[in-house]
Amino acid sequence: MPGELKSSLSADVGSKRSAAIPDLEVFFVDLVEAAPHLETEEEKTTRLSHADVERAAGMADAEARRSWRAARIATRILLERVSGTGLRRVPFEIEPGGRPVLAEGPHFSISHTSGIALIAVSKRAAVGVDIEAKSRSLKMSGNRRKRIIEAAGRYAPQAPLSPQIDADVLIAWVQLEAAAKALGIGIGRLLTDEGVVGGAKGTREKHPERALMTKTLSVAPDYVAAIAAAYLPDTLTADHFPYGSIDAFLAGRPT
User: Fold this and answer.
1) End-to-end alpha-carbon separation of the chain, Å?
2) How far apart are CA 73 and CA 63, in angstroms?
């Protein structure tokens, strides 16, 4: 097959495959189980950038290093599935608020804790996700809890949450973390702007550009998670990352 025709057909197949992928997807990754498969995949096909490798190498804790690399490899596989092989080894840019981005690529967000990760990839607009273990200890004043719930309610109209219930406060917290990531401003600034810290009474009306929706996500029994974006579908679920069938996943075949 002539080279130009082969290249054209490959591009066409890639375009059709990308078009078949939803505009927004979220994946739950068990980093402990997935890590060996992901490292094998990385040995076969290098996707991490030099900066990725250096950052992981600088982590003194072996388990933290293993989990971080696994989450980053999975993220790059998800990005490649949407935008193709040209993203391999391309370094992420870090925005002032700390958000990693690709100048030429889809939007994405990563959150990981205690051996698991949540990763979202969006074709349309910036997205943010956050996940926390339900066992996380919440040591804060009653007033701080109330302000967190009030701030989250400005991004996610929902059934009333109680400041006295740890699970409700945690739901509000992950919603705010997800919103901060989608906005690219960092959780510290969001909490200040919304009056959670600093004493001021925050109102979302001061920031009309922050037209976000946030939703909680059902992931795994021991975790609570949320997603934020300018637009969210009525139904959105977090799929399990298919670490045992990566080739089929990249090719757009059922896994």
Assistant:
1) 30
2) 15
Structure-token pair, residue 155:
């991004």
Distance CA 230, CA 126 (A): 8
- For residue 86, give both structure tokens: 């040209």
CATH architecture assignment, domain 14-242: Alpha-Beta Complex (3.90)
d(CA 100, CA 238): 21
Distance separating alpha carbons of residues 133 and 174, to the nearest angstrom = 10
- Give the distance from CA 198 to its chain's centroid: 28
Region of poorest pLDDT, from 29-43, 126-140, 159-173, 193-207: 193-207
Tokens of 165: 């219930």
Evaluate whether 75 touches 108 at the Cβ level (below 8 Å). yes
How far is residue 62's CA from residue 167's CA, in Å, rounded to a whole number? 31
Of 233, 206, 202, 194, nearest to 217 by C-alpha is 233
Residue of 194, 181, 190 whose CA lies nearest to 95: 181
Task: Please determine, for residue 91, whether its predicted confidence score (pLDDT) is greater than 90.
Answer: yes
Tokens 């959780």 sit at which residue?
Answer: 187
Checking if the pLDDT of 202 tops 70, the result is no
pLDDT band at 8 (very low <50, low <70, confident <90, very high): very low
Beta carbons of 70 and 34 less than 8 angstroms apart: yes
